[in-house]
Amino acid sequence: MEFYAEEGKKLDEACSTLVLPALSVGNVGQLAVDLLISSLRAERIGYFDDPNVLPCVGNNAYAPSPPGDLSLPLEAFDSSSNRLTLVQQRSPVVKGMMVEFAKNLANVAARNGKKHVIVLSSLDFKQWQNIDMSSGLQIYYLSSSSTDGTDEDCEKHGWKRLPEYNPAHKRWEYLSSTIEENIVQDDDLLFEDLKEEDYYPSLPFAALFSCFKAKGLKVTCLLCYCSEGDNIPDAFQLAEAASKILIQSPNDFEGTGSGRWIVPFSWKSVYGPPPDTSLF
Amino acid sequence: MEDVITDIPPPSRFFLEDLNIFTPPSPPLPSPFLLFSISNNGKPFRPSLLVVAISFPSLHFFHHVSSKKRIGTLILPEIPFSGNSVEPSLRDKSCDIYAINNADESIVVVSVQYPVTAERSHAVAKLLIGEQINPERVLILESVQSRNFRGKLSRDDSFAFKLETSLERSSKNSPLITGLDYLPSGSMVDGLAAALLVQCQLRKIRGSLCLSWPEFGFSSNSLIKNMLLKVLPGIELASNSNDEDSFLRIAREKDYLDSELYT
């Protein structure tokens, strides 16, 4: 993975917190990062080029101006006042290469002085085992602060440790040993059908969590359950949760109008054109 | 009407196996490579303009340029040559490289006549830009991808959009493509065209991507032809370049055979 800096910019070690999405149902992590970048008015500092990320390109995702400003698959933004680097990922990872991609990203983060990584992602409602409707729109977390995944600061915000996290589970153990010890892949395990308990360690957030943890960085995964559909409300929920631990400079975080969030310009067409009413 | 149950999800959504990190990767393929029929003494070729034709209207245009000379080809090992003809044909599965001398410009044209998968696009783009070919400017010609476009598309309308690298947009010299709007925000391009423009942006090369619609149609063919005659004034086209019947016959073949119904 190579980093290409914008003119006069660099990966700043002073921005010691890194925020990034993990691909997931409803693209909620990516939408949440879009909201954070837009609302923090974070400045693009450069691009990552990785052969494991499929190519894509588009027009300016955040504002109508400057017109024609390119959006690339992996971009890095800084919010210096909040000491944050945000990485946005716009396209999928090549099938079977997620762990490799996560290792590359973890290497770059560790080399450039990142201390805390926040991974934003979502979980499929269909997999929710212990439905607790009283908890409303609950945010779940997984932290590298302790072996069982708990973290006091996260608990104070009312977030729940992901109950299905079991570091002794064979797939979590396999993931850790693959990354830390670089062992050869176990074909029997890879070709085994996924059981219900295999769902969580099989997700992209698990690869990122394990890779950053292996590099000695503090990792916090923030997760919410959702179904595929209009996932913008889920993105707001996740970004709101993330802002509680990310925003150090509230003055820089003011939207226009009634809310403090600035909706990215590209969201106007996120679900395609309106239906053709000429039929009626 | 689309079947929401069985239709392929839009590109921003995932199949379950896309999100499974334990899905084994596909078997590795041999790397693509360039073969040149002329030598440059081991140095990269430095054309003033590199044109990569991917869309059918652009392939049709350059197929009929009479002043071009074939200088090489790009080999993707997984693409079979069977069925290709000795003389260049629009029906060939090939990726031939041509040199055109036009006024004071040295132009290299790459005619991409086989599908390059998204997974291979990064490797092919790096091969075409920055290694054995180091262009001053790049023009990529592709069609609007209906799966990635967030506006309304009708086959009765023909239009084109553009995307440009920062250097192309900020350059004081005249832009390569004029009279086109930028692709609206929210719509995307993927595949080889995207990979090429990304490499241009990363390597700070003046790059332009022109996206035309419809993919196969005489109207988009005229639109691209008129645009390219402005970009390359003085270029000579063969006398049969306006052969509508031949164009429509080949366009229909490609539209039928390349349809997603048969993937």
UniProtKB/TrEMBL annotation, chain A:
Q: Does the keyword Coiled coil apply?
A: no
The source's superkingdom equals Eukaryota
Keyword NAD applies = no
Q: Which UniProt keywords apply?
A: Chaperone
PANTHER family linked to this entry: PROTEASOME ASSEMBLY CHAPERONE 2
Oligomeric form and interacting partners? Forms a heterodimer with PSMG1.
Instruction: Describe its function.
Output: Chaperone protein which promotes assembly of the 20S proteasome as part of a heterodimer with PSMG1.
Write out the similarity annotation.
Answer: Belongs to the PSMG2 family.
Which named protein is this? Answer: Proteasome assembly chaperone 2
Protein's organism: Coffea arabica
UniProtKB/TrEMBL annotation, chain B:
Superkingdom, taxonomy of origin: Eukaryota
- Alphabetized PANTHER family for the sequence: OS01G0219000 PROTEIN
In Swiss-Prot or TrEMBL terms, this protein is called: Proteasome assembly chaperone 1
Which species does the entry assign this protein to?
Coffea arabica (Arabian coffee)
